[in-house]
Amino acid sequence: MYGIKRLAIKIGSNVLTRADGTLDVTRMSSLVDQIAFLHRNGLEIILISSGAVASGRNEIKVKGRLDDVSARQLYAAVGQAKLMNRYYDFFKAHGIACGQVLTTKESLGTRRHYLNQKNCVNVMLENKVIPIMNENDTIAVTELMFTDNDELSGMIAAMMDAEMLILLSNVDGIYNGSPGDSTAEIIREIDLSNDITACIQTGKSTFGRGGMLTKYRIARKVAGEGIEVIIANGKTEAVLPRLLEKNQDVLCSRFIPSPKVSSGIKKWIAHSESFAKGEIHINADAAKVLSDEKATSLLPVGIVAVKGVFEKDDIVRIYDDKLRQIGLGKVSYDSVKARELIGKKGNKPVIHYDYLCLDLRQ
Ligand code: GLU
After folding, report:
1. Which of 13, 68, 100 best tests ligand 1's pocket when mutated (most atoms within 8 Å of CB)?
2. Statement: residue 163 has pLDDT above 90
3. For the chain, where do the domains classified as CATH 3.40.1160.10 start and end?
4. How confident is the model at residue 362 (pLDDT cuts 50, 70, 90)?
């Protein structure tokens, strides 16, 4: 009916909270109605919902002063339960079951954990259960945290091979100037060949962690993997069905997906930069060969340096002769063996083409 089968929807904290920081249950109920409608029409939907910390904040009166980490953990623990309770009741009213999946960046870092997580969401979808995902904010602190739920939703959309990712926030899309400026307009279609980073406002959202710049970066990356990404306003009337029925005009920014869909493992590698354990530096010839359209693996002969300590199958960063990071890959050797092979001819690839992910800055 909609030309796609699987859709990931991220709802930002600002969509679900009122100006005073309390949970906007009216908005939530309306979004659940829309999701239920799409679900009834045969779409498989994965929901990534923020709002745990925001909805926990007003629930408890804290005695004394709490440090930032403890406050976040406390609010998230209470708020996530409250959020799920609401979702559960709203979906139940439509006769739809939903389930909670809390994740952390670390648990998506190894291929085995990643596939476990994927399997969990798959089994839910197969049984017509709507997965509602969030970061486990009670244990994800500081450097172990996702930048925000935009990053998480990009990873989930890629992991689950969704055909579309909708990022709902409290703005209509990406403006070609400051949103406050009356002449600024929403950029309706964003083409991957055109980098518009320079026009994006760098401010952060009020209740969530993300901002437009991270949304834009994630959206580009995900669209580069062949998934259509839409940034739209979660407060727009019936926004979800209207976005999917393409003849209906809704103000939003659409990222045109790359016609080439990346393989599952390449998508995992592309979203695993923060787990990279080491670096491989290559010479100009190797960099040129890799940048060719033709599928090529990274051979020892093109390597000039190996940095850090890593095991076979870890993710490493790849740098060219000008010290620019040009990609990521899953290595076939540990760092000791990789060092021994530097510059040698005739060995099997250090990174096989299937596990090589270039153009990260798309
Ligand atoms: N996981 C956080 C929450 O549910 C939101 C993170 C974000 O704002 O992106 O409160």
Report:
1. 13
2. yes
3. 6-265
4. very low
Q: Rounded to 10 degrees, what is the CA torsion of 31, 37, 38, 40?
A: 140
Q: Is 56 in the pocket of ligand 1 (CB under 6 A)?
A: no
State whether the beta carbon of 51 lies less than 6 angstroms from ligand 1.
yes
Determine if ligand 1 sits within 6 Å of the CB of residue 104.
Answer: no
Does residue 137 have its Cβ closer than 6 Å to ligand 1? Answer: yes
Output the CATH code of domain 6-265: 3.40.1160.10
Residue in 100, 101, 137 to alter for ligand 1 test, most ligand atoms within 8 A of Cβ: 137
The tens digit of pLDDT for each residue in 232-252 reads 999 999 999 999 987 678 999
Q: What is the mean pLDDT of residues 333-347?
A: 92
Of the candidate CATH numbers 1.20.120.550, 1.20.1250.20, 3.40.50.300, 2.30.130.10, the domain formed by 276-358 belongs to: 2.30.130.10
pLDDT of residue 361: 47
What spacing in Å lies between the alpha carbon of 82 and ligand 1's midpoint?
14
What is the pTM (predicted TM-score) of this model? 0.87
Any ligand 1 atom below 6 A from CB of 153: no
> By alpha-carbon position, which residue is closest to atom 8 of ligand 1?
208
**Residues forming CATH 2.30.130.10 domain(s) in the chain:** 276-358
pLDDT grade, residue 143 (50/70/90)?
low
Measured CA to CA, the distance from residue 24 to residue 6 in angstroms comes to 27
